[in-house]
Design a protein that fits this description.
The structure holds two protein chains of two kinds.
Chain A (H helix, E strand, L loop, with lengths): L2 E6 L5 H9 L3 E5 L6 E8 L5 E6 L11 H11 L10 E7 L3 H12 L5 E6 L1 H6 L2 E3 L1 H8 L3 E3 L8 H7 L16 H16 L5 H10 L1 H5 L7 H16 L4 H20 E3 L11 H9 L4 H19 L2 H21 L4 H18 L2 H17 L1 H13 L9 H7 L3 H6 L7 H10 L9 H11 L5 H26 L13 E4 L7 H35 L8 H4 L1 H7 L1 H8 L1 H4 L6 H10 L6 H8 L8 H14 L11 H13 L4 H11 L2 H29 L1
Parallel strand pairs in A: 1-4, 1-5, 5-6, 6-8
Antiparallel strand pairs in A: 2-3, 3-4, 7-9
Helix pairs in contact in A: 3-11, 5-11, 7-8, 7-10, 12-13, 13-16, 14-15, 15-23, 16-23, 20-22, 21-30, 21-31, 22-31, 25-26, 26-28, 28-29, 31-33, 32-33
Chain B lengths: L1 H11 L2 E2 L8 E7 L4 H7 L6 E6 L3 E6 L2 E6 H4 L2 E5 L1
Antiparallel strand pairs in B: 1-6, 2-3, 2-6, 3-4, 4-5
Classes of the chains: A alpha/beta, B alpha+beta.
C-alpha cells in the first residue's frame, strides 16, 4: 500500500486531522531500533484509492534537535530503516499561524515529493482577522491548498479529493541562495546522483542546510558524501557564506513575501490588541505566587487521587487474579505445572498488573494537563527550579510520568531537544518513587509507625517521595558537568498553546494504547522474569519425606534463591538484614513488587484475601523474627535502612533494558544500575550503622 | 553603500529582546548567535512584528498571535526595535 505522510508543527491540529482522515483504522507500532511510536491508519479516498496514512511526530522544521523530530526527517528523506519513502506528504498548517508554519512547508517542498497543504483552523484565523487568499497561496506554493477545520470534520472530504490519483506534481524549490551556496548544492547533487542515491537534490539541500546532518552518523549516507558536504560548506564559509544561515534566511524571506500578498491581518489583531482569554488565565497561572499555589495544589490533588481513587480498580484487579487462581486450583491437578501457573505466572504477572490503575490514573491527569495546554505552563514554572540543578523545564513531564513508572517517563524524554538534558533526565528518572515501590513502603511504614495514626504515616510517605525527588535533583546537579553534550547550554524555548477544553477522546485513546502496551510487557518480559524467579525459588525440590518437604520456608532456604540469599548475607548484614530479607532483595532486582510476596514465603505467611490482613500478618511475623543470638531482626533501624534502600535502588530490569534502548549504550544502562545500587547500599549502610552507634 | 550604512545604523539602534520592556510592540531586526536557526524555525524571523508580554527568567512573546516562552539567553540573540 502506498504511504502518505502527515507532517505539521506541534499544535497545528495534526493528530485531530489524522483521526478525522482515518477514523478507527489505526495501528500503533515502533520504528525499528527506537521507541518512537509509529502511528499509521488506512485512508480511503472517495475515488476508491487506499493509502497508508503515516502520522509523523510534530516538528517545527526538518532540522531536528530531538530523536522524534529526527524520525520525521529520516522518513521524509527515505533514510529511515524499515520505512518506505512516502508517495506524497500532507502538510498540516495552522491558518492562524501561517507565517510560522509555512517554513516547514517550504522544507517539505524541497524534498521533491507531491505535497498537499491542509490549511487547518481557518475559522480561528478568520476570528483573529486574518484573511487568507487560498487560490493565491496555492498558486505561489505550486501545490493544492485545502482549507479545513479538522475538529469539526470540515474540509476533510476535500482533502481526500486532493489525494486522488494521479497525485499532484511535486512543486519546485521556491527560494534562491547566493551563487556560492547554489553551486555547492549543484556539486553535491551531482555527486549524490552518481552514487545512485534517491532524492539527490533533497539530500544535497539538507546536507548544506543542517550542520548536524552532515556531522552525525547517518547509516543511509556514504561517509564520502558527508565529507564532501563538509568541504563544500567550509569553502562557502571561507568566502563569508554560512550555508545553513543563508538557506534558513532565504526560506523565511520567501515566507514573509508570500504572507504579505496571500494573508492580510485585518481588524482586531490578537497580538497587537488586548490580552486574550489565555493571557488572562496565564496572568494567574504563571503568577509568582498564585501560579505556584495552583501548581502545588494540582500536584496534591493528582497524587491524592492516585493513592485513594485507585484503591477500587486495584481491588477489582486483585479479585480477578484471585478468581483466576481459584479456577486454576480446581481445574488442574497438584504438581509443578499447577504451581508454575498459579504462583509463577498468575501470581507474578498479577503482582505487576495490579499497578495498572495507578499508572493509568497518573497518565489520565497528564493527558488532561497536556490537552488543556497547562503542561507547557507547568514546564515553564518548573524551569526556574530545574535550571538550578542543570535541568530544563522540559524534564518536568518525563519526571512526573516516572512517579507512575520509570519506563513511560524515560520514553517521554524523546521529545527533549538537548541530548545532554535527555541523558541527565533518563539517569535520574528511576529515583522518582514509582507505584511499584508503594506496597513495600506501606509494609515498612506500617511496621515503623505502628502506634501512629494514618496522617503521620501519610506524612512520612510524602517525605519518602520527597527524599527520592530531592536526591534525583541533587544527582542531576552533580552529574550535569560530567555528562558530555553540546557545548552551548540548551535554553528554554517553548510554545504556550492557547488553553482549551480537554480532548477526552485523545486521552482515552492514549490510555488504551498505554494500557495495552503495559499488558503486552507484562505478558512478555515480566512473564519471563516471573517464571525464572519461580524456578529459582522452587528448585531444587526438597526430597520426599525430608523436613523441607512440609515446610515452605525451609524449602525456600534450600532453593537456588535461598542459596543466593545466604551467599549475599555478608553484603546485606551490615545493612541490618538477615538472609531472608537478602533473598527477597535479590528477587526484587527483577521487579520490586515481588519483595513482599517473597518475604511472605520466607516467613511462612499464609496468603490472605484481604491485602491489609496479609500485610498485618507479615508485619507480625517480621516483628518476631530474630537473629540466632535472640536479637530482633526488624528493629526500627533495619526498617528505616530498608526504606532508604528501596528509595535509591534501581530494582527493575525492564527499566535497564529501556535505558539501554533509549541511550543506545549498555554503558549508561549498566552504569545507572550499578551506581544506584551502590548509592542505595551506602545510604542504607549509613542509616543502619550511624543509627546503631547513636542508639 | 548608503543602504549598508543605513542598515548598520538600524542594527546599532536596536536592542536585545531581553532588554525591551514588557508590553512593547517590537520589530525583529536581526538574529545573532548560535540559536539563530532554531529561533527562526519557531517563528522569530527578521522583519516580523512581535510583542513582549512578560519579562522574567523566561519571557513570553506573542509571535503571529502565538505565545512563545524563551529564556533570557535566547532573548539576547534577538535584536529588536520599537515599532
Amino acid at each position: 500500500m502506498e504511504i502518505i505522510a502527515l507532517v505539521g508543527n506541534p499544535n497545528s491540529g495534526k493528530t485531530t486531522l489524522f483521526n478525522a482522515l482515518t477514523g478507527a483504522n489505526q495501528k500503533t507500532g515502533n520504528y525499528p531500533g527506537v521507541t518512537v511510536s509509529r502511528v499509521s491508519g488506512v485512508l480511503r479516498t472517495p475515488h476508491g484509492n487506499k493509502f497508508e496514512l503515516l502520522d509523523l511526530p510534530g516538528c517545527y522544521s526538518l532540522t531536528p534537535k530531538a530523536p522524534d523530530e529526527r524520525i520525521t526527517r529520516d522518513v521524509l528523506l527515505g533514510d529511515q530503516q524499515g520505512s518506505e519513502l512516502p508517495s506524497a506528504v500532507v502538510c498540516v498548517v495552522d491558518a492562524s499561524n501561517l507565517e510560522r508554519h509555512l517554513y516547514l512547508v517550504l522544507q517539505v517542498i524541497d524534498l521533491g515529493l507531491p505535497v498537499v497543504v491542509a490549511l487547518n483552523k481557518v475559522d480561528l484565523a478568520e476570528k483573529l482577522g486574518l484573511r487568507i487568499n487560498v487560490e493565491l497561496l496555492s498558486e505561489e506554493l505550486g501545490l493544492p491548498v485545502v482549507p479545513c477545520q479538522a475538529n469539526r470534520g470540515k474540509g476533510v472530504l476535500d482533502l481526500k479529493h486532493a489525494m486522488r490519483h494521479p497525485l499532484p506534481h511535486p512543486s519546485r524549490r521556491k527560494w534562491q541562495a547566493s551563487k556560492q551556496t547554489e553551486s555547492a548544492i549543484h556539486d553535491l547533487t551531482a555527486k549524490l546522483e552518481s552514487e545512485g542515491m534517491q532524492k539527490p537534490s533533497a539530500h544535497a539541500v539538507h546536507l548544506l542546510a543542517d550542520a548536524g546532518y552532515r556531522g552525525e552518523d547517518q547509516p543511509a549516507l556514504d561517509p564520502s558524501i558527508q565529507s564532501l558536504a563538509v568541504d563544500l560548506a567550509s569553502v562557502c564559509a571561507r568566502e563569508g557564506v554560512s550555508t545553513e544561515e543563508e538557506i534558513s534566511q532565504a526560506r523565511t524571506q520567501w515566507v514573509q513575501s508570500i504572507c504579505k500578498v496571500a494573508a492580510r491581518r485585518q481588524g482586531v489583531d490578537a497580538q497587537a490588541g488586548g490580552l486574550t482569554t489565555s493571557d488572562k488565565i496565564d496572568q494567574v497561572l504563571l503568577h509568582p505566587v498564585w501560579g505556584w499555589a495552583f501548581f502545588v495544589g494540582l500536584m496534591f490533588v493528582v497524587f491524592w487521587s492516585i493513592f485513594s481513587l485507585s484503591e477500587y480498580p486495584m481491588g477489582w484487579v486483585e479479585m480477578g487474579i484471585d478468581a483466576l487462581k481459584q479456577g486454576v486450583s480446581t481445574l488442574m491437578p497438584d504438581g509443578d505445572v499447577k504451581d508454575l501457573v498459579n504462583d509463577g505466572v498468575i501470581g507474578g504477572v498479577g503482582s505487576v498488573v495490579i499497578f495498572l490503575p495507578q499508572i493509568l490514573l497518573l497518565l489520565f491527569f497528564i493527558g488532561l494537563m497536556e490537552t488543556t495546554g497547562y503542561m507547557a505552563r507547568a514546564a515553564l514554572l518548573m524551569d526556574g527550579v530545574m535550571s538550578k540543578v542543570g535541568l530544563s523545564g522540559r524534564a518536568f513531564l518525563p519526571l512526573l510520568s516516572s512517579y507512575a513508572c520509570a519506563i513511560p517517563g524515560i520514553m517521554a524524554t524523546r521529545s527533549m531537544d538537548s541530548a545532554k538534558q535527555r541523558l541527565l533526565t533518563i539517569l535520574i528518572a528511576p529515583w522518582m518513587s514509582c507505584t511499584a515501590r508503594l506496597p513495600v513502603y506501606s509494609l515498612l511504614i506500617g511496621m515503623l509507625l505502628a502506634g501512629y495514626g494514618a496522617a503521620v504515616q501519610a506524612l512520612v510517605l510524602g517525605g519518602i517521595y520527597g527524599l527520592g525527588t530531592v536526591s534525583a535533583l541533587f544527582a542531576a546537579w552533580l552529574l550535569a558537568p560530567k555528562v558530555k553534550g553540546e557545548e552551548e547550554v540548551s535554553h528554554f524555548l517553548m510554545e504556550l498553546p492557547s488553553y482549551s477544553k480537554p480532548d477526552v477522546s485523545f486521552i482515552v485513546r492514549h490510555l488504551v494504547e498505554r494500557a495495552w502496551s503495559f499488558l503486552r510487557k507484562a505478558g512478555t518480559v515480566i512473564l519471563g522474569l516471573c517464571i525464572l524467579l519461580w524456578a529459582l525459588e522452587t528448585y531444587p525440590k526438597p526430597k520426599e519425606g525430608s523436613p523441607a518437604a512440609d515446610d515452605p520456608a525451609l524449602a525456600l532456604e534450600q532453593s537456588y534463591m535461598g542459596r543466593m540469599g545466604h551467599a549475599i548475607e555478608p553484603l546485606v548484614k551490615p545493612l541490618g538484614y538477615d538472609w531472608r530479607t537478602g533473598t527477597a532483595l535479590v528477587a526484587a532486582f527483577a521487579a520490586r513488587e515481588v519483595f513482599n510476596a517473597n518475604l511472605a514465603i520466607s516467613y511462612s505467611v499464609e496468603e490472605a484475601d484481604d491485602e491489609d490482613k496479609f500485610l498485618e500478618q507479615l508485619r507480625g511475623k517480621l516483628a518476631k523474627a530474630t537473629w540466632p543470638d535472640g536479637r530482633k531482626v526488624y528493629t526500627p533501624l533495619t526498617t528505616m535502612s530498608l526504606l532508604v534502600f528501596f528509595v535509591y535502588a534501581l530494582q527493575c530490569l525492564p527499566t535497564t533494558v529501556v535505558v539501554r534502548r533509549e541511550t543506545g549504550s549498555w554503558k549508561w544502562a549498566i552504569g545507572q544500575l550499578v551506581g544506584m545500587t551502590a548509592v542505595a547500599w551506602l545510604a542504607a549502610f549509613t542509616v543502619y550503622q550511624v543509627g546503631s552507634l547513636l542508639s | 553603500m548608503i543602504a549598508d550604512i543605513a542598515s548598520d545604523l538600524k542594527v546599532d539602534s536596536a536592542m536585545t529582546l531581553s532588554k525591551a520592556s514588557a508590553g512593547c510592540q517590537l520589530r525583529i531586526r536581526q538574529l545573532a548567535g548560535s540559536a539563530c536557526q532554531r529561533l527562526r524555525e519557531i517563528g522569530f524571523c527578521e522583519e516580523l512584528e512581535i510583542s513582549k508580554l512578560s519579562d522574567g527568567r523566561n519571557m513570553i512573546c506573542s509571535v503571529c498571535g502565538t505565545r512563545l516562552a524563551l529564556s533570557k539567553k535566547l532573548g539576547d540573540q534577538v535584536l529588536v526595535e520599537m515599532v
